């Protein structure tokens, strides 16, 4: 869609804004708003300040509440009247514009219920004689791309209330502001709908992908194979000639490194944390991982050393995240992970990796977690998990089938993500063009 431009433009005097419509005022935020309020945090160690339920309590907005959605309709924490008084906090009315100054810098949200805010957030009330709130919301959204010009910190970008007050803003007349905001509501609504469709597609692809994995490693590839009860609720029936084994019977070794965090070095052996794990070791950016000295590597890998054909599994936090080691390279995995080495006469490492992606394995792990109180999977727990074992030839065929099928899902998912990225770029560009007057949407 091609939009017309305004008939006349003038220099804005702001380098990144360039020329703007002739009739628009170039101002700063403090001249166009009635109030900019910064919140605070009651003493976290005082239980009298923090509410355990909604009874006579006040929603307290943190950055995480803002980044969830453009409308804040719930908060993770609430404070008491005593907590409110301890910091002399103000309860902001429903509809207040919220603006983040730290961490997720420049995020904009609207309060959907009366609430107070922490010190990383500003509550902004426009001067209704000069600005409509919806136009101001879109202006703050578009200026996010330029905040590096106004923010500074030794450790991370941040703003403060005074810097936000000094942010530039273009002010057309109120009728034009309303027209711009209504246009953007309509057009961004269409884009958001298309993004939601792509995200639903990605969820469906994820579910279908999971179904294909789970079916292949518990039912096999032959739809006409005679079946038998596995004797395990979450496994159901399996092919008649398959065996049901515990992990301890199909592994040559299972273990972790010492529960010790080695010091980092500039150049050394990669040390993978849980967050570094990818589906395949070859996908990990090893240069970006923590590096440890060779002496620490040799000492820590005495108990078990990861090598090609092994499966690595996270057993804390993101329990069940698995990685197949498909390359020959020296690296360590942290004690938050466990290394599984298969008995190759019984199970191939790649088949085990796919099995550990299945619903059957997830249920088996959850069953073991429920037997302890630590919320993590120990080595003995894993040894007791059951696995449906096909013949080695079938395992190879199943792994090859899954490699082909999952690649199709991954391609479709990547295409959907590219569509989302393009739509979001279009959304950003449209907002910027409309509120800076590069297009005339009246």
Report on the architecture of this protein:
- The structure is a single chain.
- The protein has 442 residues and is of the alpha+beta class.
- The chain has three domains: 109 residues, Helix Hairpins, CATH 1.10.287; 147 residues, Adenine-n6-DNA-methyltransferase TaqI, Chain A, domain 2, CATH 3.90.220.20; 150 residues, DNA methylase specificity domains (Adenine-n6-DNA-methyltransferase TaqI, Chain A, domain 2, Alpha-Beta Complex).
- It is 35% helix and 19% strand.
- The strands form eight sheets. Strands 4-11-8-9-6 form a five-stranded mixed β-sheet. Strands 16-22-19-20 form a four-stranded antiparallel β-sheet. A three-stranded mixed β-sheet has the order 7-5-10.
- Strand 13 and strand 14 form a beta hairpin.
- Helix 5 packs antiparallel against helix 11.
- The two termini are 15 Å apart.
Structural category is alpha+beta
Whole-number mean pLDDT:
91
Strand fraction equals 15-25%
Q: What is the CATH-assigned architecture of the largest domain?
A: Alpha-Beta Complex
C-alpha termini separation: 15 Å
CATH class wording of the largest domain: Alpha Beta
In total, the number of domains comes to 3
Give a count of the beta strands, DSSP E runs of length 2 or more.
Answer: 23
**CATH fold-level name of the largest domain:** Adenine-n6-DNA-methyltransferase TaqI, Chain A, domain 2
Shape: elongated
Question: Number of helix segments?
Answer: 11
Q: What level of helicity do the residues show?
A: 25-40%
Strand order of the largest sheet: 4-11-8-9-6
The CATH homologous superfamily of the largest domain corresponds to: DNA methylase specificity domains
């Amino acid at each position: 869609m091609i939009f017309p431009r305004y008939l006349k433009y003038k220099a804005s005097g702001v380098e990144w804004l360039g020329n703007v419509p002739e009739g628009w005022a170039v101002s700063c935020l403090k001249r166009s708003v009635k109030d900019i309020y910064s919140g605070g945090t009651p003493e976290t160690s005082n239980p009298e300040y923090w509410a355990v339920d909604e009874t006579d309590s006040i929603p307290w907005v943190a950055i995480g509440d803002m980044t969830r959605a453009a409308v804040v309709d719930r908060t993770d924490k609430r404070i008491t009247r005593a907590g409110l008084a301890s910091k002399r906090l103000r309860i902001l009315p429903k509809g207040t514009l919220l603006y983040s100054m730290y961490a997720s810098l420049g995020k904009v949200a609207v309060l959907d219920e009366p609430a107070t805010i922490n010190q990383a957030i500003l509550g902004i009330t426009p001067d209704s004689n000069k600005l409509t709130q919806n136009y101001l919301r879109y202006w703050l959204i578009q200026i996010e791309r330029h905040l590096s010009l106004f923010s500074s910190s030794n450790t991370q970008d941040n703003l403060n209330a005074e810097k936000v007050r000094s942010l530039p803003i273009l002010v057309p007349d109120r009728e034009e502001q309303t027209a711009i905001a209504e246009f953007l509501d309509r057009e961004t609504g269409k884009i958001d709908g298309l993004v939601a469709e792509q995200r639903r597609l990605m969820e469906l692809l994820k579910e279908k992908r999971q179904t294909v994995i789970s079916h292949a490693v518990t039912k096999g590839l032959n739809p006409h194979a005679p079946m038998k009860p596995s004797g395990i609720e979450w496994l159901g029936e399996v092919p008649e000639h398959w065996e049901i084994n515990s992990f301890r019977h199909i592994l040559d070794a299972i273990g972790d490194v010492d529960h010790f965090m080695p010091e980092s070095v500039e150049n050394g052996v990669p040390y993978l944390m849980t967050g570094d794990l990818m589906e395949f070791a070859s996908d990990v950016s090893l240069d970006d991982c923590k590096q440890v000295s060779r002496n620490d590597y040799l000492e820590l890998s005495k108990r078990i050393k990861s090598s090609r054909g092994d499966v690595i599994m996270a057993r804390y936090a993101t329990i069940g995240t698995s990685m197949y080691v498909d390359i020959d390279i020296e690296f360590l995995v942290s004690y938050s992970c466990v290394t599984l080495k298969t008995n190759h006469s019984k199970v191939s490492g790649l088949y085990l990796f796919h099995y550990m992606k299945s619903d059957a394995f997830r249920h088996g792990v959850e069953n073991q977690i429920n037997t302890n109180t630590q919320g993590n999977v120990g080595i003995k727990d894993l040894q007791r998990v059951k696995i449906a074992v096909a013949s080695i030839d079938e395992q190879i065929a199943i792994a090859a089938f899954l490699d082909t099928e999952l690649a199709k899902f991954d391609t479709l998912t990547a295409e959907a993500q590219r569509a989302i990225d393009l739509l979001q770029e279009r959304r950003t560009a449209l907002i910027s063009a409309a509120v800076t007057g590069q297009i005339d949407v009246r």
